[in-house]
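Appendix B, record 7
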Amino acid sequence: MNDQPEESLSILDLIPDIIYRLDPTGIITYISNSITVYGYTVDELIGRSIFEIVHPEDRDRARFRINERRVGERSTRYFEVRLLTKDQKAVPFEISTEVDNHNPVFLLDAKGLYSHTEIKAEHFWGTLGIAKNITERKQAEEAIRKSEAIYRSLVEDMPALVCRFKKDGTLTFINNAYCTFFKKTQEELIDHKLFECIPKSGRAIVREHIRSLSRNNPIVTYEHEVVCPDGTIRALRWTDRLLFDQEGKPMEYQSIGIDITERRQVEQLLTKRLRYEKGLALISKALLEENEAENTMTEALGYLLDVSGVSRVYIFENFEDPEDGLCNKQTYEVCAHGITPQIDNPFLKHVPYKNGFTRWQKILSKGDSIMGLVESFPLGERHALEAQDIKSILILPFTVSGNWYGFIGFDDAENSREWNEEDIRLLRLAAELIGSYFERKKMEENMHVLATRDGLTGIFNRRYYLDLAEKELARAKRYKRSLSIILFDVDHFKDINDSFGHPAGDEALKELTKISLEQIRDNDFIGRVGGEEFSITLTETDLKGTVHVAERLRKSVESARIKIPDGTSITTTISIGVAEWTGEEELTKLLARSDKMLYAAKNSGRNCVVWEVP
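C-alpha cells (predicted):
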C-alpha cells in the first residue's frame, strides 16, 4: 500500500474511519490520518504492533480474529473490539478485515510460528482493515437497554412474552408467559408461524421491521396488535433482536413483548382530551373575537367538527310560534367533506316540538342530552333523522340567561358511533361556551337597543337617528343620489294626555309608529326626535315621491282608531313638513327646512302636508 500513488492515500485520509494495513505479525505498515483524532500521529504508530492499542481484555480475541485467515480466503470478517486512545481511554470499534494475498507472506505453522513461503497468489501477505467508531451505536443500544429496563420496572406486574423465531417467522422457542397469553401449550405453538396471531392488515409492517434488522441495526422496537383466542384485539410492544452465532453470522430472532393495551387506551384518551382541549381553546378564542356572528359561529363549529370527528355539527335555536307553540330552527351548520348540508332544508326552518319531538323537548329542557344510534330511536324521530342520512347522533342543550335556548347537534352519517362519557363531558363544555356566546350577544344587542332605540316606540332615538341620517346624506352626496326628510308631530297631543291620561298618549305614539313603519320601505328609517315629533329619512326619493308618501301617511293616521287602556278608541291627526336635499347642504340645514315646513303645516290648520321646492 505504501507504493500507492499519493492521490489515493490522500483520499483515504479523508475517510473518517481508520484504514490500516498489517504485516503477518500484526505490525502496522500503513494507517490513515483518521487515527490522529484519538491522539496518535501516523509516524508513531507505523512499525508498532496493532495490539498495543487494543484494550488488554480484547487482545486475545483480536489476535484470533485477525489471524484466523486461510490461504486463498478473500471474505471480509467483522468483529468488535475496544481500541485505546493516546490517553488510554477505551473506544468501541467495529473491525472489518480482509486478507491481502498479493505479496510474499509468512504463514502460521502447526506450532503457531510464522514460516516464509514462496510468492503465490493463493498465499496471504498481511491484513487490510477498516476500524469504524461505533460509540454512538453502543450508546444507543445502551439507551435502549436502559429504557427497556425502566419500562419493565414500571410494568413489572405485566409478564413479558418471549419468543424466538426463524427468518420466515417459524417459532423455535416460547416462554410460559407467551403460552399463557395466547392460552396455548408450547407444543401447539412451536413450529407454527408467529404471523398467525397478527391481523392480516398488520403483517406486512411486522415483516418490514424484521427485515430491517442487521449487524448495524440489530434491535428494533415497535407496536402491533394481536388476535387473542377469544377474538379480542390486544396491543403489544415488541423489541426484536437479531441473534448471531459465534462466527458472527445471523442465527435467528428473539422478540420480547409487553401488553400495552391499557397503556395505549390511556394514551388515546389523553390524546383525545388534549385534542378536545385544544379545540375548546380555539372555539373560545373564536367566540371572543369581534367578527360577524355567522363567520364566528362557522369558525367555532369548524373546530368542533375537527375535534369530534363527526360528519356534521349544527345549532338549532328555539322560538315561539302563535299556532305551533315552542319550535326550533337550524341557524348554523358545518359539514365534513362529502356530507350533504342541511342548512337550506326547509323542514329544519320550522320544527314544532309537538310534531314528533315532544320527547326531545322534555329531555333537553331539563338539561339532559339525547344520544345513540338512530335505528334505536322512536319511529317518528327515526324517519326524520334517517332522511338526513344520520346513523348516530348526540344532542346537547345550551341555555341563555338560565333559560333553555336551543341545542347543538353532532351527526355521524358514516359510522354507527357510540358516544362515551368523556365525549359528552368535553362536548358539553363546548355547548356551554356557545351558550355563553349567545348570552353575550343578547346582552350586546340589548345594550345597543338601549343606546339607539326609543324606549317607548322601539324606533331609533334622536341621537342615533341623526347619526344614521348623516351617514345616509354622505352616501347620497358620494353617489349623487336624491334624499328627502319627512318631519311630523301629533296634532293637539297635549289634549290627549290631559283628557285620557299619559298612558293613552303613549298608546297613540306607539300606534303612530306602527302606521309609519307600514308606509316606508326597508331602506328608509324613522326616529323619534322629540316628545311627539318624528322624522323619516327617505333614501333615493325625490320631492314628488316624498310628498306622496307623506300624504299617504297622513291619511292612514287620520283614519286609524287607536285603542287606549280604558278600552275606548280615539282618533288623532298629524301635521307634516317635507324637504328635499339640495345636493350640497348639511343635515342641519335640511332638518331646519323640514321643520320650517312643519311649522307652516300647523299654521295652515294642521292635518296637512307642506313642502318646499329646493
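Remarks on this record: The two ends are 113 Å apart (CA to CA). Residues 376 and 382 are 8 Å apart (CA to CA).
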